[in-house]
Amino acid sequence: MQYETGQAIFRVKDVKLGRQTSVVHVTLNQGTPGDEREEVVGYITQSNLRTERGVSYDTDWQSHPEPPPVDVSKLDSDTDEHWGERKVIPFQDFRKAALRARSWYPKAGQIKPSIVDQWVCLKDQGDAWTNESLGFVVDNFPQIIENFHDGGDMYSVKFEKEHGHMEDFIARKGAAKMWYPTLLLNLDIKKALPEQGVRFLYVRLQAKQIKNGRYDLEIVVKDPTGDLVALSHHMSDHIRDSSVTPAQASINDYRYPCAAAPDIIRSNQKDAYFQSVLLTQLSAVIRSLYGARTAHNWTNETRTFTELLYLGLTTFVGNRTLGEEYCDIVQVEDDTGRLPELTRRAGYILSSVLVPYVLGRFLPALRRRLRAKLEVSMRKSHRRRASSPSRSKLPPSRIYQFQEYVSKHLDTITSPAPVYALSLAVFYFSGAYYQISKRIFGLRYIFTRKLEPSEQRAGYEVLGILLVLQMIVQGYLHLHETYTHAATINLPSNNAAAAGTSAAIDNGVEVAADTTIAAPLLFEAPQGADPVAQQEQISKITHTPLPQPHRHDLKDHEAMQWIDGKQQRKCTLCLEPLKDPSVTTCGHVFCWQCVADWLREQPMCPLCRQSALVQHVLPLQG
């Protein structure tokens, strides 16, 4: 059936005229004269219900499952306990007839997605439902398929309060409007309503099967007393808007592929570059206004403000970042595949920028407090142990050893680095959620173009394996050293064996001075750790030879003769001849070990204070 907007002609023919029942044939025709088409065909059987007489039996039929109870007198004021009025019916601008009626739905939601219960009345107070208006009742029904298409109870009162007009909600979500051509198979009127009509009618709509774009509808109409008023059956097809062609529909149904790990990392690096440019310019402004000391003291705050400014001008307002545009990727919600809502975007920005800043500000103070409490507890335990000659010969208690362990590894225990490393390893394997904040808020990237079958999407699974191996090795070294240290303490001759491996703090409390436990393969090195001692310890455990101490030592005048001048061949950090000369991004040269140790403590050039990272330092050759 192809309906057209315009004139239509109804033709009614008598099929059977009887004393009790009459049947008429009705057609709806459209088209130009001489080329008319029958668009709708139907038979109407008419009888006078008020004069009908016949046998009646109580079949004890009831709606199952039963709808919530109702106090019809409270519907008008919308104060019923179980039913609430929807002020706006979905798609009422398209279905103009819906504007003439009021509808109430269960406040707790529909019993099942395939069932919709409602109470209806006409908006005009003087109007009431009669037998003649039952056709309007059974034809102006909620669309069950919307519950399955969009998920949830689309006609619930709660949904309207949370999301406003459904049409606006669907437009925001990006879903296409659905069009429902229906074929009324029958309308069987079971009861004659009073001539003056009734104010309210109960309607239950139920679908038994939805398959291949077709679904059946059964509509039951009851009056406020619970008597069955009418039964109706419809056959429906659900398709998209008639203006959407099959080719357009295939485009709408297309799912963009998820972005690959290399594109996500490249986008992140591009964003980091633009953020660094913005940071450099902002630092220059602060330096010119307030001086270099202020600019240095507020480096972390400036960096945080720069990141907030960059993401606020892009992600927060719904735009793509420069890195995302460069890599042709778009950020979407993982569960719906739609553009992220404002709350998700704001949550991602705050968690990815402010949370690390807050942790960086408060973690050191927290560590100092915890370490002070541990030292006090260890001091008391040591005093009790020293006061008794019998206890002093015994190994330290388990609690003391645990406190000593926590005090020694407090920086690593309270560091978020292990969580970051684990999240990064998962990203290398899955290609999703490069940042923990994106994993928390369910934000993924998709390509904005269709990938050809010949295109290869490389992954970083090998890096994931290497990172996992790195964590396993570090864990093994840590467990090995911890076990060895504990076994040494518990030996009867621990006082002699532990010589040179402990030191006294206030009031004679001894703590281990061996800082080489758990070589920092993945996390930051403990402050004060000797890199040479760490390398020797790892070599001892793994049975691997140590590399040469220095490949290039400028103490030898034959090495790197192109570096002229006695001062130029000295490191400004150790004031000795350069060993393995290495250059930072700003162009200053230091010993490799000196600059690496410096950058672990503070990521900036020792001379010009420009931002620098260990991975950006280049060793000189030749």
UniProtKB/TrEMBL annotation:
**Which reaction is the catalytic activity of this chain?**
S-ubiquitinyl-[E2 ubiquitin-conjugating enzyme]-L-cysteine + [acceptor protein]-L-lysine = [E2 ubiquitin-conjugating enzyme]-L-cysteine + N(6)-ubiquitinyl-[acceptor protein]-L-lysine
What are the record keywords, sorted? Membrane, Metal-binding, Peroxisome, Peroxisome biogenesis, Protein transport, Transferase, Transmembrane, Transmembrane helix, Transport, Ubl conjugation pathway, Zinc, Zinc-finger
Entries under SUPFAM superfamilies matching the protein: RING/U-box
The RING-type domain is annotated at 571-609
User: What does the record give as the organism's lineage?
Assistant: Eukaryota, Fungi, Dikarya, Ascomycota, Pezizomycotina
Family under the similarity heading: Belongs to the pex2/pex10/pex12 family.
Q: Which GO terms describe its biological process?
A: protein import into peroxisome matrix, receptor recycling; protein ubiquitination
Which locations, inside or outside the cell, does it occupy? Peroxisome membrane
Question: MF terms per GO, please?
Answer: ubiquitin protein ligase activity; zinc ion binding
Family matches, as InterPro entries: ACOT8-like_C (IPR049450), Acyl-CoA_hotdog (IPR042171), PEX2/10 (IPR025654), Pex_N (IPR006845), Znf_RING (IPR001841), Znf_RING/FYVE/PHD (IPR013083), Znf_RING_CS (IPR017907)
**Chain positions covered by the region annotation Disordered:** 57-77
Where does the UniProt entry say this protein principally localizes? membrane
Q: In which pathway does it act?
A: Protein modification; protein ubiquitination
Supply the name of the protein.
Answer: RING-type E3 ubiquitin transferase
What's the superkingdom here?
Eukaryota
Q: How does it sit in the membrane?
A: Multi-pass membrane protein
One annotated Gene Ontology cellular component of this protein: peroxisomal membrane
- What Enzyme Commission number(s) appear in the record? 2.3.2.27
